[in-house]
Design brief:
Pfam families: FAD_binding_4. The protein has helices spanning about 10-15, 25-30, 45-50, 60-75, 125-135, 150-155, 165, 235-245, 290-300, 310, 325-335, 350-360, 390-400, 415, 425-435, 445-450, and strands spanning about 25, 55, 80, 100, 110-115, 115-120, 135-140, 180, 190-195, 210-220, 225-230, 250-260, 280-285, 300-305, 335-340, 340-345, 365, 365-370, 375-380, 385, 405. With about 450 residues, the protein is of the alpha+beta class. A hairpin with a 2-residue loop joins strand 18 (about 365-370) and strand 19. It binds flavin-adenine dinucleotide.
Length: about 450
């Protein structure tokens, strides 16, 4: 879907209004700050490669965000919010030019108390974790990009990650406590959302307000050991992953299963994984290692390596081989590879086994186990040997015909990459906070098609 609006022509009056703020007008820098990791998708590459903003603004506080919002409304200039730009669907690529609002200078932690932190959106997740850990609490879940990704970008465009095996996904009630957002009304203002209202702006790709502060629930800190377990049979690896994820007495943060030949893309791990073997990458509390050993024995797995939390904190971490880092490593070896994101419908693994045999290594299975409504389920971030868009769509359609739910990463439209349904509450909120449709235009189907709803 493309938008018909044209990009703004003369930004000088807007620049004058923003005098004193941190502005970037250099075309090369603007071009860089207009891109994200949509390049994982051969479908999105040609659609987004030439999209750039016209000006980057880097606010340092909420008052400056209000000032930028007011100027953009006054001159009807689009505004696209950006964290670290690690989104992988083109979420922060501006389709109609305008202002890129880079939030990375708003990176303060306002307070941390047991189980909860109040932070600014541009804070990097690794930095947040480091500071909250000093108080005995850590981030509940983080994307595998946590070293660079911001907390605002995770809430605006992410879904879940390392920690989701215990805490579920961002959309699960209780994983986001409150947000403050700046609106794009004629007189921009700050609104605080709490309770279920937070979902009006969470995972909205910055189309429903500019998040300026968040209250993020935390988890107790554990020393996380890292373990690679290998198996000669993929379905045994998958069953082990599910059993571990459902073992309530074992405290874990990551259960990631990769079918052969995916481990061959992990250059730094290859010596620990025999040729042709399937692996499960784990982050598990050190105190759970002993019972983990019993479970590994029960499933006939072999420990490829085991590191204490302290050893794991130096050098390689398995976190950066999981979630979409698996895709990143595969693509760094073979850039023709792409990926899918799938939630499997049940926990008996029958469909998984069918898909594994049906597609063989055209669709290589990479599993991330998640907690969904109280029990573990596998999600798949399959690594796909891409041939044509038509074939990719056939693969998607086949999964859907069997009851698997695809979160399509080959579209930049919010709803199409997510639950597919129009969210009327989200649309009503947008009509209030962004009546001119200036926030990240072209991304929300509900807004584009509102006259027909
Ligand atoms: C290798 C790789 C691995 C990844 N792994 C994961 C993973 O494990 N889990 C996962 O969920 N995602 C993953 N992603 C996607 C992405 O890294 C994460 O979602 C990350 O949290 C995005 O943070 P960011 O700061 O880069 O956000 P950006 O990409 O800058 O922004 C993401 C979206 O949020 C909006 N946004 C940013 N800041 C604000 C704000 N203050 N107010 C309103 N909207 C805002 C932007 O407009 C954009 O639409 C991965 C991507 C890559 C390339």
């Amino acid at each position: 879907m493309t938008s018909t609006k044209s990009r703004p022509t003369n930004l000088n009056p807007l620049i004058t209004d923003l005098a004193g703020l941190d502005l970037i007008t250099d075309a090369n820098q603007i071009a860089k700050l207009s891109q994200d990791y949509y390049t994982f998708s051969p479908v999105l590459q040609p659609l987004l490669a030439d999209k750039t903003g016209d000006l980057v603004v880097r606010p340092v506080n909420e008052a400056e965000v209000l000032k930028v919002a007011a100027a953009c409304v006054k001159f009807k200039v689009p505004l696209t919010v950006r964290g670290a730009g690690t989104g992988n669907y083109g979420q922060c690529v501006p389709l109609e030019g305008g202002v890129i609002l880079d939030m990375t200078r708003m990176n303060a932690i306002h307070w941390v108390k047991p189980g909860l932190a109040c932070v600014e959106p541009g804070l990097k997740m690794a930095a947040m974790d480091k500071q909250t850990r000093e108080t005995g609490w850590e981030v509940r879940m983080a994307p595998s990009t946590y070293r660079t990704a911001t907390i605002g970008g995770f809430i605006g465009g992410g879904s879940g990650g390392i920690g989701s095996v215990t805490y579920g996904q961002l959309r699960d009630r209780g994983n986001l406590q409150a947000v403050r957002v700046v609106t794009m009304e004629d007189q921009p203002r700050v609104i605080e959302l709490r309770g279920d209202d937070v979902y009006k702006v969470a995972h909205a790709y910055g189309t429903n307000g500019i998040i300026t502060e968040l209250e993020i629930p935390l988890a107790p800190v554990y020393p996380w050991a890292e373990v690679i377990v290998t198996f000669s049979d993929f379905m045994t690896a998958a069953r082990f992953g599910l059993a571990l994820s459902n073992s309530d007495g074992l405290i874990k943060k990551l259960v990631c299963g990769c079918a052969a030949p995916i481990p061959t893309y992990f250059a730094a791990l290859r010596s620990y994984i025999p040729d042709g073997a399937h692996c499960v990458l784990l982050m598990i509390a050190e105190s759970s290692l002993e019972p983990l050993g019993e479970l590994i024995k029960e499933f006939g797995g072999t420990i490829g390596y085991q590191k204490t939390a302290q050893e794991a904190s130096k050098g390689i971490t398995l976190a950066e081989y999981s979630w979409n880092h698996t895709t990143l490593h595969a693509r760094s070896v073979d850039s023709s590879l792409t990926y899918l994101q799938t939630l499997l419908p049940d926990d008996n693994l029958a469909l998984l086994e069918h898909l594994y045999h049906h597609f063989k290594d055209e669709v290589m299975l990479h599993l991330e186990f998640l907690r969904v409504a109280g029990s573990a389920r596998p999600a798949a971030l399959q690594v796909v040997r891409y041939t044509t868009e038509e074939r990719l769509n056939q693969i998607i359609a086949y999964h859907e015909s069997k009851g698997a739910f695809i979160f399509n990463p080959h579209t930049y439209i919010l709803e199409d990459g997510g639950m597919k349904a129009i969210d009327i509450e989200q649309l009503k909120f947008k009509e209030m906070v962004d009546p001119y449709g200036l926030l990240n235009p072209g991304k929300m189907r509900a807004w584009l098609e509102r006259s027909r709803l």
